[in-house]
From TrEMBL:
Descriptive protein name: S-adenosylmethionine carrier 1, chloroplastic/mitochondrial
GO CC terms: chloroplast membrane
Lineage: Eukaryota, Viridiplantae, Streptophyta, Embryophyta, Tracheophyta
Species per Swiss-Prot/TrEMBL record: Lupinus luteus
PROSITE patterns with a match to the protein in the record: SOLCAR
Family assignment from sequence similarity: Belongs to the mitochondrial carrier (TC 2.A.29) family.
Family annotation (Gene3D superfamilies): Mitochondrial carrier domain
Length: 326
């Protein structure tokens, strides 16, 4: 099956029969039937504007999702950290939220701020039938940029979720003094191992389904439709990457004890001591959390992007009007 295209134009002046023309168009659609995108002729790419709008939309979406779903994330983390017959503690499910938001806001803003302009640039570079690679690549690049903020934030958050610390500032000071700078980036390799595939796959699935949906509906999608697609993309990607998430959690919360010597040793130890099923610990809360989170995130993201896009003409017109007055 070939790729779907948002705009299919068939031009053949030698065909005068309406039926023949219709047949040619249908054949063109069949040949291009799996989620590629044609961006067509557009104005020169405005990198800075796309970066700015991505930062605003991404930061907004990230904060809304994190605040709404933090308790589910805490339960997931405690399930993954539990060993043997340890009981799950349901107290303090919002532990570390404030400190986490300090990192989530810039991380989400940076991710979308990189993703959106890179996606648009890559869609102009890649052939029309390879738009999925543009989305995958842009998602991975956004993940790499955001990881510089995400990892220390995640380390502090998970230490607080597992009740090792009572305040984010105290956690940062202790980790920095006892474990050094490397302590704040504990599990960085496993984080990238989880988040780069996650970001790339989730955004690719989301974008490709939207393209196909738009082509079928022949219109722009509304917020509930974007949210539903986001939920599906998030839940599916969350389930696939759960083993990577378990590994990342174990490496991040081990502290200075260094129970695991690395990613491979972590996997081998978990399987040896707890069995292969331990790599799927927390899959239920993770799928629920990321599914709902994907729904909220992409719904808020698209709404924010649309709001900012609608502001562009008004701002430009106002600017021109002011210049004429001068």
């Amino acid at each position: 099956m070939g790729p779907l295209t948002l705009s299919v134009t068939v031009q053949d002046s030698s065909i005068s029969s309406p039926d023949a023309c219709t047949t040619r168009k249908q054949n063109s659609l069949v040949r291009n039937s799996f989620a590629s995108v044609s961006i067509g002729e557009e104005n020169p790419f405005d990198f800075l504007r796309s970066l700015f709008e991505g930062v605003i939309a991404g930061g907004t979406a990230g904060v809304v999702v994190e605040t709404a779903l933090y308790p589910i994330d805490t339960i997931k983390t405690r399930l993954q950290a539990a060993r043997g017959g340890e009981k799950l503690v349901f107290k303090g499910l919002y532990s570390g939220l404030a400190g986490n938001l300090v990192g989530v806001l810039p991380a989400s803003a940076l991710f979308v701020g990189v993703y959106e302009p890179m996606k648009q640039k890559l869609l102009r570079v890649f052939p029309e039938n390879l738009s999925a690679f543009a989305h995958l690549t842009a998602g991975a690049l956004g993940g790499i940029a955001a990881s510089l903020i995400r990892v220390p934030t995640e380390v502090v958050k998970q230490r607080m979720q597992t009740r090792q610390f009572t305040s984010a500032s105290g956690a940062v000071r202790y980790i920095a003094s006892k474990e050094g700078f490397r302590g704040l980036y504990a599990g960085y390799g496993s984080f990238l191992l989880r988040d780069l595939p996650f970001d790339a796959i989730q955004f690719c699935i989301y974008e490709q389904i939207r393209i196909g949906y738009k082509l079928a509906a022949r219109r722009d999608l509304n917020d509930p439709e974007n949210a539903l697609i986001g939920a599906f993309a998030g839940a599916l990607t969350g389930a696939i990457t759960t083993p990577l998430d378990v590994i990342k959690t174990r490496l991040m919360i081990q502290g200075s004890g260094n129970q695991y010597k690395g990613i491979v040793d972590c996997v081998q130890t978990i399987i040896k001591e707890e069995g292969p099923s331990a790599l799927l610990k927390g899959v239920g809360p993770r799928v629920l959390w990321i599914g709902i989170g994907g729904s909220i995130f992409f719904g808020v993201l698209e709404s924010s992007k649309r709001f900012l896009a609608e502001r562009r003409p008004a701002l430009a017109q106002s600017s021109k009007s002011d210049k004429h007055k001068e």
